[in-house]
Amino acid sequence: MRGIINHLFSNKLSIDISLPVSCPQPEREINSELLSLVLEHADICRDAGAGCVALKVSRAALKQSHMRRIFGKYIDKVCNITIIWNELTASVVTVIHHSLRVN
Questions:
Q1: Share of the chain above pLDDT 90, in %
Q2: What does the DSSP 8-state code read for residue 13?
Q3: Using CA atoms, how far apart are residues 49 and 43, in angstroms rounded to an integer?
Q4: Strand, coil or helix: what is 96?
Q5: How confident is the model at residue 75, as a pLDDT?
Q6: Which is nearest to 36 in space by CA: 98, 93, 92?
Q7: Beta bridge partner(s), residue 83
Q8: Contact at 8 Å (CB) between 88 and 51?
Q9: Could you report the per-residue pLDDT of 28-44, keeping only the tens digit for each?
């Protein structure tokens, strides 16, 4: 057994790591006003486990004129935010910003 372990660790791995090219980052400002709007008007609520839910405002909701007035200047940002909410502690666990799309 010891011989097998020594053999496994005697071979060294070579890993090449390349850093991503620097590129401008999109504006990702998420302030308390935007978070409050999502928490108050989220129409998508999915179980995230461990007493948490994922809250999001759907694009369909934003097609309603009264919702467009409510979200005002945040209309372009609100659908890109998912809040993981802990129902047991009534607190935000994390905020996920979906502005970057992977093709």
A1: 37
A2: P
A3: 18
A4: strand
A5: 86
A6: 92
A7: 55, 95
A8: yes
A9: 567 888 899 999 999 99
> Do the domain assignments include residue 10?
no
Q: Provide the number of structural domains found in the chain.
A: 1
Q: Distance between CA 17 and CA 100 in Å, rounded? A: 23
The proportion of the chain whose per-residue pLDDT surpasses 70, expressed as a percent, equals 67
Question: What confidence tier does 100 reach under pLDDT thresholds 50, 70, 90?
Answer: low
> Would 75 be classed as within a structural domain?
yes
Question: According to the 3-state scheme, what is the secondary structure of 16-59?
Answer: CCCCCCCCCCCCCCCCHHHHHHHHHHCCEEEEEECCEEEEECCH
pTM of the model: 0.66
Domain range for 33: 29-103
CB 75 within 8 A of CB 8: no
Among 75, 70, 40, 72, which Cα is nearest to 56's? 40
**Is residue 102 assigned to a domain?**
yes
Any domain includes 61: yes
Mean pLDDT of 45-52: 93
